[in-house]
Records
---
Amino acid sequence: MTPSGKLTINTQQRGTPLGDLFGIFFEDLNHAADGGLYAELVRNRSFEFDPIDHPDYHALSGWAKIERGAGKATIAVDHAHPLNERNTHYAVIDIIEAGDGVGIANLGFNTGIPVRAGESYRFSVYARRDASFAEPVRIAIESEDGVVHAEAVIQVESAEWMRYEAVLTASATDFSGRLTLVTRGTGKLYLDMVSLFPEKTFRDRPNGLRADIAQLLADLKPKFMRFPGGCLVHDGSLSAEDRDSMYRWKNTIGDIAQRPPRRNNWRYHQTLGLGYYEYFQFCEDIGARPIPILPAGYDPHHKRIVPIEELGLWIDDALDLIEFANGDESTEWGSIRAKLGHPESFNLEYIGIGNEEVGAPFFERYAYFHRAIKDKYPEMKIINSSGPFAAGGEYERGWRSARENESDLVDEHYYQSPEWFLANVGRYDRFKADDPKVFLGEYASWGNAYYNALAEAAFMTGLERNAHAVGLACYAPLLCNVDYVNWKPDMIWFNNHEVFGTANYYVQQLFMRHQGDCLLPIEAAGMKASEPSREVTPIRGGFGVGANANAVEYSSIRLINHATGETLSYPDRALDRTGAGDKDIAMLGATDWDDYTLSLKAKKTGGGQWGFAVYFGWTDERQHLQWDIGSWQNQDSIIHSVVGGKGSVLTQSLFEVQNGVEYDLTLRVTGRKILASIDGAAVAETEDHIPYIEPLYYSVSLEEATGDTILKVVNVRCEAETVELAFEGMESGRPLVAEVHELSGYGLADENSFEEPIKIAPRTKNLTVEGTAFAYEFPKHSVTVMRVRGV
Ligand code: AHR
């Protein structure tokens, strides 16, 4: 093939450092920790499950009574004589009739307790007995129908709580097992913190991590790990003592039996067994810089706000965390870390205050945190927040705050359609090097198909090329247990014994493993022109109104043509979805005008938390634009663009709809530009870009340790693209040697799965060429990383 253009790389001219650019974000949603990365196999080990965590939960969730032969017992949960004041509930087995044994079985996560033949498992329990109970307790891992795979015996010796341990070695492989504790005799047996861990955890650490999931994370070679959330951080009450408090790190360290139970805002129970010490340890183990995110005393979901005069406690939490991570043993918190087993510093360099916060109360509080941290730790890089959307009022407020406070980084979050990512590869081209840096703390295109991964790869070349402005970036969410899904898509999927990385995972892996240390200049010449991904037309088509679990009256509906002055009127519409919990869309008409205003009055007359919805540019449910006013918890005005059923938020600002109040809504559409106003005040101004697809997306970096020049090229188009590659400065007289890692040859809808976990995964080949310039064909729909060896 004749090359259609040329890419010239200057291998000698070092550009912007790439620093810690590509990393990961861990949040305990989708059972990412309990029932996931945290290797504990027992579900509800301390009998602390509670309806606060989930309406279906109770203190014996995950447990079943065992009565064998004529055995009879009652199982209750009590709190009269607790293990400690933070772990108050425990199980009481009251033996009525010993029969062939009575006791309790834990059903584990997913299909049960998974064990593998020949592998050992560490059992532990806190137990006590009453005076009449003296029998041994038989601990076993059994199949669903009672076949014993492993067993051990403990003798409970005291009426006071004592910890007992045993090692169980499995004789068979079974992923649907049960952990059983069975006894005979008479009297009462009390149990708490019933635990079973595989002996083989990641790096064999006690209270450790599931080796297969942790290894997949380690294999990414992330430069950093952001943790512990997400909404998990700021969704909660203000008292650290509350079960549903915001995420308070001090609750998560030390003896696991002393860590309080926590309501996870993703509607399940969080043991906190995977806590801050374990997070820091894991970061160290995988060579990732830790990036903890702390709550700022403000819960934007429930508008809980710490008064400024009480903010000191929260700021102290941040300062103490830095000391916990970095302080030496002479410091209060450094000595606590040392006692936990890590005298050396965890080398904390970054700290985030707040997670995708919106609203003035956060930004008012951020300034206090910022000043206090910088006063004590001037080197600490502090991350501010810019809300959950890629543009709009709150996003701008976050950036304003970051500039005013001189934050080091600003956390941006967005989940959008693949088309949005393709239209925004150049998003950071206009960002300045002397501004705070972007921390793209959460992003993903909606899906785990190869097409999503491809769009993300193209976008990531834009992140890398713009390292002058983008400091850190991580995909989200990271992990998902297939049986406990809160959020899709996710980078890695698992059940209780298998795990696989998605196509998105392998793109992330390519960019992390081959990040490089600094950019190198790359120049394109003679390349084909970019092409729109679909016909470029003004926003035309159907328009209508909606209600979402509420009742709304729309009136004075008009469509005005700004080119001709023509005005069309439409009948009033009253929609009622009160209590229905779903939405109703009433299409009003359609237009092929290029410059028009849709104006209408809207009044909410009853129902749930949603306000109004205006649809435009409508082709069908999967292809349209939408203006939501008072959406999600009645707090936003949002313009969405839906392409192929996948939505993107083009812009957002805060807006709350009052019941019974009539609002004047106007939506001006000019070509693909949108201006939305309420009662005459502009609330949204944006453009719905159709992506122009470049022949290739690329970036190039240098890895100092190897001297490798690393070229990343993404071809999103439906045909192969051949270009000449010239590596200037590599003239050595010897052939040029390159290692090529490539994703190609997949259908755009292809996905990895448990059955085909590496259907989509990079293949590696070696290349030797004479000279420093050669023609190379980048296959259609491909991601290529070419490491050209240093001379
Ligand atoms: O990544 C899932 C969620 O998305 C995070 O908890 C939150 O920060 C964002 O809204």
Note: The first strand starts at residue 6 and ends at 10.
---
Amino acid sequence: MGSVRYRAVPRYYITTPIYYVKDAPHVGHAYTTVNADALARWHRLIGDEVFFLTGTDEHGQKVARAAEEQGLSPLEWTDQLAPRFAEAWADLDIANDDFIRTTEPRHRDAVQHFLGRINDNGHIFKDTYRGLYCVPCEQYYAEDELVDGDRCPIHRIPVEHLEEENYFFRLSAFEQPLLEWYESHPGAVVPESKRNEALSFIKGGLRDISITRTSIDWGVQVPWDERHVFYVWYDALINYLTAIGYGRDEERFEAWWPAVHHLIGKEIIRFHCVWWPAMCMAAGIDPPAHVQVHGWLLLGGEKMSNSSVNQISPADLSAEYGVDPVRYHLLRDIPFGSDGEFSAEGIAGRYNADLANNLGNLLSRVATVVGSKCGGTGPAPDPTSRLAGVAATVLAEATEAWNAGQPHLALEVTWRLIRETNAELEIAEPWKAEPGAAVDAVLGSALEVLRIVSILIVPAMPATAQEIWRRIGLEGSPADRRLPGAAGWGGYEAGRPVEKGAPLFPRRRG
Ligand code: MSP
């Protein structure tokens, strides 16, 4: 007898890929993580119950070799590296709810349980594998996928011949079920071009894939044959289930799965949009509901990566520009779904235009004039201000953009409100006028815009949002307000102390 189950609050489960602990994180990794954090924060703002997961992918040959090069055991190595990811994310103000390491016992148990189910369901068999393997990809390639004869199409290094006894997953049996599933779930992979890429992999024909290794022992042991460990990708994908209680806490698992949002880079579409849904079907659970694919952060036209020299550390960048400007740049300048060039000129240009000249300028001129014309006490907003309409439109459009997973559009729209408010001030010139009702109305409305903007920028720049909130005399945190109600015009109460303070974003030269 099932009881009636309903949820008053929608749930939003968002994940990043788990990062290989081959080296310290670079800005390319930060790109995914900041996007996921912003979306998680947005969903908290609109009142959803959020679970935001990130972590580290610690097994496999790639990590074992990196450890060996350092003269360390794999576990010693990953014990050193995993905290560097966690710290990098804390430094970037990432508010993840969990941080999973694939070397944790909870994950080993989930992997063994999940793959045990697939085995029990008859989708695994044993055979000898001969193939061409790229270690940095942790993936076998068919000959016709190679470039320049024997090179991996991603890393452009020669692949290796491997031959071993493996267990195989009968992926070929899922060709039709996957096509049918995608047919009935048209929005499962966005953008559309990436969905088409996934579909063409499937339509191109699926071969059974090897899922275990005997050549290394750095991995999760196969429960029914202890000479084997699971291939790292099979182990890694399951992290998304481990963290929500798969195999341990069915009620919790069912509360969060399958309505997940996987954020991934475009190079791992095949794993997330072909293998992963097939594995889920084979284990008897639903495939993930949403995969959002983004492009690469490029430096000089090349993907920023661990195996190239062009990596930049998030900490270096934040030391130079500040945490929130780095977050803002990553969200605002690289449209989600496309590649984007990363450059010092790009980040500095965006900083000056949007942060110093617009947002920072608005706050400082309003605070200064409230100081000189209103004795430092904020007046009430004008209920008839034109800006009320602008704010309402901006809220509606920003909401649509955030909900569609398009932070760059949401921020572009939000800045329209800031620009229009600066323009109003330039027309009204309250700094030249005599104190009185007209000046109060203009400044009260500008303070109201700053209040609304503080809430709207929480996902992108949480610390800046908090600081503006505090300077205009508000208590608590903008992150604790709930949209859309909190952005209704007129929420700023007169009589609050407004603090001038140092410029939020001093203009940068060059
Ligand atoms: N460990 C696997 C993922 C397993 S998920 C079950 C992996 N790790 S990775 O560290 O190589 O890359 C993880 C993710 O980092 C990529 O999918 C992508 O989201 C992000 N990025 C790494 N370099 C990037 C750029 N240069 N630009 C944008 N994102 C980048 O693959």
Note: Residues 17-20, 28-29, 31-32, 57, 236-237, 239, 264-265, 268, 296-297, 303-305 surround 5'-O-[(L-methionyl)-sulphamoyl]adenosine (CB under 6 Å).
---
Amino acid sequence: MAVNKKIAVSGVRPSGELHLGNYLGAIKQFVELQKKYKTFFFIADLHAITEPQDPKNLSKQTLDIATLYLACGLKAKETVLFVQSHVPAHVELGWMLNTITPLGELERMTQFKEKSERQGLLAGLLNYPVQMAADILLYQAEIVPVGEDQVQHLELARTLARKFNTRFGNTFKEPQALLRKEGARVMGLDDPSKKMSKSAPSANNYIGVFDDPENIRRKIKIAVTDSGKEIVYDPTKKPGISNLLVIMSQISDTSVKELEAKYKNKSYGEFKNDLAEALVQKLSPIQKKYRELSKNPKKILTILKRGAEDANKIASQTLLEAKRKMGFLI
Ligand code: AMP
Ligand code: TRP
């Protein structure tokens, strides 16, 4: 890997079934980034436990997500793929950063307010963004590809980097969020006014990354469209068809403009047929690769352990520097 590549870091929580929103909003972008940047992608198991987890499932889910990422095209040679809890520096720096984080900043976080309403007031939920800041700052990341929902947390990472640097001397780079323009918010198929989500009341809301062709065709067929006949992008007046256009554009790497021209005199039905086939073509090879890789979990674990070693080399250096600056006996 070239030394002068910029550094990109991101984490994903190991949470159950992944859908098209996760694929287009996060995974696809990671795969594209690994060529251009030096990338560190980790499975955020320490963040996952801020919501109740069944201890019987956590390790399997962690391995499953890693397998899926590899199936989607992340390459062990090009990216450092690892499990957050395998690199202890994350928690150490997290603790140190907690000591300079004003409580008010954490209590203001939208995600904290929403989640604590459902789960009760747990210190882990409150401190979640501080841990996230540590995850990022340890690698001196310049860019952090995330969904819109994480932007507020990223602001805190920037604030903490500045604060630490001012108080103890220049140590951390200030990271920047990288948001996709299109695909950053894939909307629900049955209700295009809300984002696609696996916690939606109906499974017809989303295309699961593991949905079979029959299911994909069925869900696209019944996806909500709008009145009128034209296939044009207009999220206010035509939210249903606009969402499907964005999905098609992302899946086929064709611009929305080109798609509008291509489907100028075509029906919703024809467009939906093509979209379903494009999705089947995109997802089938990923599913096949996933099944292949799943046969050898030991190999995945080896990749993750090697990733943790590589991550640890960088993370422990930054941690040492931060400890030195804070005045610890080393
Ligand atoms: P989550 O499973 O909610 O933790 O999301 C994992 C990643 O997928 C995050 O980067 C989210 O921003 C992204 N994501 C989740 N849902 C969507 C969606 N409907 N559209 C675009 N990105 C999404
Ligand atoms: N909180 C992020 C999410 O829910 C996951 C995450 C944890 C993360 N640590 C991170 C993302 C560091 C980017 C950088 O999606």
Note: The beta strands are 7-12, 38-43, 79-83, 143-145, 176-178.
---
Amino acid sequence: MKFFVDTAEVAEIKDLAASGLLDGVTTNPSLILKSGRPMLEVIKEICAIVPGPVSAETVATNHAKMLEEGRKLAKLAKNIAVKVPLTPDGLKTCKVLSSEGTMVNVTLCFSAAQALLAAKAGATFISPFVGRLDDIGQDGMHLIDEIMAIYRQYPHFKTEVLVASVRHTQHVVQAAKMGAHVATVPPNVLRQCFKHVLTDNGLKAFLDDWAKTGQSIL
Ligand code: E4P
């Protein structure tokens, strides 16, 4: 499974990319606002740090304008994935951009029917928002299960399931168990994936004992 980080904070991205475990980045208008930086500038910087797909979201709601925005974003770097919303105009734009060889991430997916349409429109990624479904009392991960089951029936679909709106490490684990292709994870959740109290305690005990031996490896 690929790990993307869900942030527009360049310092966080640099830090996590240094782990060698980062496969891509997703941003959205809210994350750009949070960064406090001009979108085009920040996206270009991110693309230079992470060689994998970097999602940059369009904000127009009509097809013509969205296509113009998408083409402009796609020119920023080779690894841009243009994000379009799961609307009729968004899917129309997805189809055109995909046919031009641009990666497209269809965002704001909340149903299996929507995911089916995105695959038919040639999306590179479909982004079902699991956390936001959980937030309204629905089961976000059930949606991932449904989409994976549908996509498996049609091997010619090339769309990758990008689990978005991840809130905790269990979302990541469940996504992996279901065979989702990608999880886009906020930096704090990605860091939590490394952690276990027994790892910390065990390491401390080994290092304490090693110090008592008086030896050195180097
Ligand atoms: C990523 O592509 C999505 O925009 C993001 O995961 C949404 O997450 P949120 O529900 O925490 O805002």
Note: The first helix runs from residue 10 to 17.
